[in-house]
């Protein structure tokens, strides 16, 4: 007799896997669902409700979100009837984006509650965020398991939870689409892939522009950026005084376009202001590119100095320029660093490795071994 696979209810309150706007959050949610399926689970996206509270003083938004969440709870419970899933899996709950659905259903149906990439920050205890963060903290405390993608997140949860149930899961990507495209690097080709948004993204683009200005005279370089967003005009303005024949704005690219771009690169440059980790770093390295970035936030989780990663102290624009110039002037060293980076991604950050890790951890949870 064939045993049915364990069933997982999946929910991503910040951005659903089927959200129309691409982002790292959407990609990670999609990858998690794929990894869970590869691990032998039946995964269902149970809700597309977006829970995002961008204003700490907007109590009306929180009230409306709670009402919508209660409606979703009723709808989901009715759809389950007497046959609930085996586990609730929530991706990326935090003070701006709490899970207001899963905890109630988990208690009602006696389901293990598991989170991935949850975070807590005492600095954000203001207005309605203080209330939502307290709720997230309580649910993380009760969770059967909290999966942490970075050491920083694990330390943050460990500091704010009593006897936290934590486990590490390395950030990961699907390497196969990148492996299908043979590298054919263009001399001096600097590439990046990033959304164009105000804040940290714009700050990283500003640092790139400054680094390009700092390259030694006579350096053979050109820069290609894939990405789009509301700050596109502001991003392009940062580069207005640079030679425009060397700069190429490609807009948002489909996956095959991203693979082609990376295959043509000499190196990948993205400072990484405020990056939680950055899946694009993994994609670039999987394509055989050395990455130049700042040693900041979660970037060292995916860009490894012991495997070709080129990390510069945060804020050191001159250091970015020196490192880029050094790699451009020595293609053999750049290629060797790219090969080392690719091997590190294959070994530490593959979809297969994530599926194996998730399968072990979640079956332990379901069988009460955690």
From TrEMBL:
Keywords annotated in UniProt: Glycosyltransferase, Transferase
Superkingdom of the source species: Bacteria
Entry's EC annotation: 2.4.-.-
GO molecular function: glycosyltransferase activity
Pfam families for the chain: Glyco_trans_1_4
Enzyme class: transferase
Protein name: Glycosyltransferase family 4 protein
Native organism: Gemmobacter denitrificans
Phylogenetic lineage: Bacteria, Pseudomonadati, Pseudomonadota, Alphaproteobacteria, Rhodobacterales
